[in-house]
Amino acid sequence: MKEPLELRYLQRLAELYPTIAKASTEIINLQSILNLPKGTEHFITDIHGEYEAFSHVLKNGSGSVKKKIDDVFGHTLSAADKNALATLIYYPKEKMDLVAKKEKHMDDWYRITLYRLIEICKTVASKYTRSKVRKALPKDFAYVIEELITEKSEVLDKEAYYNAIVDTIINIGRAEEFIVALSELIQRLVIDHLHILGDIYDRGPGPDRIMDKLMTYHTLDIQWGNHDVLWMGAAAGQQACIATVLRICARYGNLDILEDGYGINMLPLATLALQVYGDDPCTLFKIKGEPGYNKTENALNMKMHKAISIIQFKLEGQLIARRKSFAMENRRLLDKIDYEKHTITLDGQEYPLLDSNFPTIDPKNPYKLTEMEKDVMERLQAAFEQCEKLQQHMNLLLNKGSLYKVFNNNLLYHGCVPLDENGKFLKVNIYGKNYSGKALYDVLETYVRKAFFAIDDTEREKGKDILWFIWSSPSSPLFGKDKMATFERYFLEDKATHAEKKNPYYSRLDDEKVMNRILKEFGLGSDGHIVNGHVPVLQSSGESPVKCGGKVLVIDGGFSKAYQAKTGIAGYTLIYNSYGMMLVAHKPFTSAEEAIANETDIHSERIMVEMAPHRMHVGDTDNGRALKERIEELTELLAAYRSGLIIEKP
What we know:
The chain is of the alpha/beta class. Strand 13 and strand 14 (552-554) form a beta hairpin. The protein is globular, with a radius of gyration of 28 Å. The model has no long low-confidence stretch (mean pLDDT 92).
């Protein structure tokens, strides 16, 4: 006899499958899905606002599109033809504009190209059910594409049938639109699921465009990076986070992200900067990179840079004093300055300041904002909180994001699992209670969500402040250093003061015992993998992204141009398909224009990390396990129908 709860569940299931026939059909459908090849997962991290490079890697699937072209055409196409076809798939509209200027017989080119794209579509669609492919088809051409990529055994002269469809497409002037639709479908089907392991924001000029693109992506998850959490704090109205976002944008010449991308007015800050620092050259606050400013714009940016930096240091000092449990008193630095001697005392040692012009700092109360600074921050806070586009982007981070993800036997996170010097999980005080390991991640994520959704004002404020804690605390899993030496890097010449000591986690990446303990903490066995973002891999110094015998994969994307001189490459991405896991090392991306004109791709080197013992199927994945559970439930429902426990409802 079934237990009451189990019986009620079967009765609810019977509402979805009211007959033996419907339940049986669903079992057959699910069983067929289990035997399909595992979909390709694409792992990308540390994009840092570099929209063009990110967009290109997304289009080419870290080499997955070219791999499909090779699979389909082998030696029947030259390398040049394969490159041309790949470029067309990445940038169909732009490439066809160039082809039209040179090609005299466009109808022939359309015909050849359409047949090639159709063949690739057939191959990439073969990994999915017809229902899933149908959902991915563009509405305008859904029926026609389905006809072209589906084998029709009932048609005797298949060649004539397909030729007639292709000829009609060309004759009615829809070839270009159809080629665009096929190219985008190939991009869509080559990658089944996208993982973003953090740091979408800061340094590069286009994080808003990246977020717009992710909002339309078919299926993805996001593990928050420290820079993402900083922007989340700013969007929630946390003033120290807002000031830090502005400082970083000013430092990299990207204030137009805020003005043009998000419509946040910079005039109040510019007015403050000119009024307070009008005669100050602000030489320590030069822009990193080449934003293309003229002399006047550059001078104003440097003044705004200094103005918001001082505000940031004040607000951080207020926050640290307010949140004693953060244990960051040593980062309150403005009260350590001797404003007459122009020095600062750190850890008992006195250092001269490179800049001592602080007209807005009251030495007796150094963390107090002036009335003008206070007004600027209140106006900025309102602008961040009320920016519709920014809030939409933050909703995507909240809905698709988390601090970590366990997916198909892989543990994904940005940063580190904080450890003590002995390699044990570090105990971290969060509002009066100690947490470590997975529990630390979980409680921090709870407070992140409270910053946006808590009804209680006290809990909401705790959530906002925890976002800054995650950004900069030595105990934060997303920061993982003993200090954020921002002040020292600006104001002190002694390089020793600039050093930021990493958490012991980073020295233990090849320690199998520690890595296995982390996997176990998050519910995985020793055969699992840790996929880790955040830290650039210095390939030019001989460093490998593969740690602990392949158990740990450090895949900082290296998209940020600021890092590429150190790393020697544009970083790594990861592909996990039905054959195994492959790291992809990328050379720096030049531009979409060059890629289109010269048919050049990002030069990538694929490194097999782990070959699957057999070709993996959906049944070997997390989704497969869920489908198997559903099959078991439906099988019980069938038994209940056949025993008369539940009556069919035809």
